[in-house]
Structure formats: structure tokens, C-alpha cells
Amino acid sequence: MSQPSETEVSLIDVSSYLPGEPIGADYYTKYAESDALRDNLMFRAPRLRHHVGANESAVDMVEQAAQGIIERHGRDVIENVDVLITHTQLPDIPFCGAGGGIAHRLGMRPSTVLDLNNGGCAAFILGLNIARQLLSAGVGRSALIAIAQNAAGQVFDHPDVRGKSQASVPGDGAAVGLLTRSDASPILDVECRTYGQYAGDMTYTIDPPRKWWQPGPGAPYIGFTEDKITKVLARGNRQVPEVALAVCHRNGLSPSDIGLLVTNQPNRVFLRNWREALEVPESRHVDTFDECGNLFGAGIPINLDRAITGNRLQPGEVVVMAGFAHAGDFAGAAAIRWGGRPR
Fold it and tell me: What UniProt keywords apply to this chain's record, in alphabetical order (predicted)?
């Protein structure tokens, strides 16, 4: 039997957390305002979603998400992690990422801590790419990727925002992924692409206009228009299958070899279009939109955790994760041959 390469890196486990009790779509009915985008397919509300608690921080959410990893692998495995990579949709404190707070809360003393912003809804894949490169280069033997989506119950539930059509779609949640230098569940490949020309299409709008950090009336919200939505739909429909197929083709895989497809979940339209473009049947594409809403960057790892827990991914099968971010300025995909979760 051949020995595993010293530079082979595996995603050996994921665990997740959804805050509070589920909130139904009827919660938003009482706040709904007349909105030119109300009937747009982008904003068809999920049946349920979760909101971060009023006094719940991103660090709190990640601590809860990490409990599954701790229970299955032991606290010492978390405490001895060498690399910590984090992404928080809405940082608790301006200027500061959550990396330091997460490391302290979990009893970690990592040699490398990175807080990511540009990965957006594909942040978990970006984190996989960076962790894989660092561990392969000998920076350490293990890494933890921690993603917190906490904007639904804070930005989108603000009294001045929750009446808008966009407010009922997001949900909150957190997830962590544990990586080691091993061949347990090897990362076969990762593809990350930056489309900087689209970065300016993601806007944060306030009425009356002001900088988001300036005091004044009105609350910020995402600046959607019909024209922007048309462009984002076109980009997302193209980018996610492209990066997924790039990973598959480099590894001699066809869509029929995908045991499980896990994507971010902006809305039902994207979910349907992606699986059709990749010729993956609905039974092999994780879809929690109606239970959780748009989980932004936490969507991929939360969906992967739920699929593993639900016995939808078997040892030896290939899982392909893919997603795009913001208005289409970043997209990524990763393929992993799943080796099974420790019991």
C-alpha cells in the first residue's frame, strides 16, 4: 500500500450552528412595503430562516458551531490547530476581524490567523484553498476554517430595512471545517477566480445618501436594481458551473461522478439552474433554502454538515462545492473525496 503524501491535505470534518428558533415567512408579511422588486425571482422568500440573537456575537456563533468538532475529535485537537482562517459577514467591531476572539474562545494558539473578506458566499472555498496551500507548504499540520453569517438578524431585520423585499431572504448561521495533513478525506483540487471588474457592482445604499459609517437617518441596505439583478443572475449562472467543471475536468471527473453537489444558496432560481447546468439530479444537490434561507458564506459548510449528518454522502464519494460572491467578483469550487466522519 502506498504511503500518503506528506503534502496531502484533507477536510476531515465539519460542524455547524443555527441560532434561535426558526422564523417563518409570515414574520415579514406585517412589515412588507410596496417595492418595485417585490415580484423579482431573486427575492422569493424561504419558508423559514434563523436570526442571530440580540446579544450574540460572531465569536459566540463559531464557538457553538465548533462543538460538533470538539465532541468527535476532542478539545485538544482544536486547541492545537496551527492555522485559523475566518470569515464574518458582519464584523462585531469595526476594524477587527473575529480571528483573535475565536482563537481565544476555543483555547487555540495558532501560528497563523487570517480573517477573509473577499470570499463572500464562497468564503469557505477560499479558506480551503489557503489552508491547503499553507499546510502543504509545512506551516502546520492542521487548520480550522470558521464562517459566521450574522447579517440577517442585524442588517436585514432593522426596522428601516425589513419591509424591503430583500430582507426576508437571508438567514443566519455558522460553521467550522477541520483540515489536517492526511489522506483521510483528501482535497482533490480547488479553483478560485477573481473578477475584479464586477467589484463595484456590490453597493451599500442609504436614503438619504451618506457613507455607511456616518451618523444620520435611514439604515443601509443592499443597492439592488433590475439592471444589477439581471447582471448578477447572468454571472452567477455562468461562474458556478464553470469553476465546478474546471475542477472536475482537471481530475478526470464527469458530472455523473459527483456524489454530492454543495453550493451557496442565494435563491431557488440559482439552485435549479446550477444543477441543470451540471446535470446533477436534485437528489444529489443539497438544498436547504426553504429551511435556512440564504446563509451567505456559511451556506456551503452548513449544507455539507447537514448532508453528512443526514447520511447523504458516503465514504469514497466525491463532493463538489461551488459558489460565487457578491455581484460576481469572486467564484470558487473544490472537490473532495470523502473518507467518512469519525464516530
Answer: Acyltransferase, Transferase
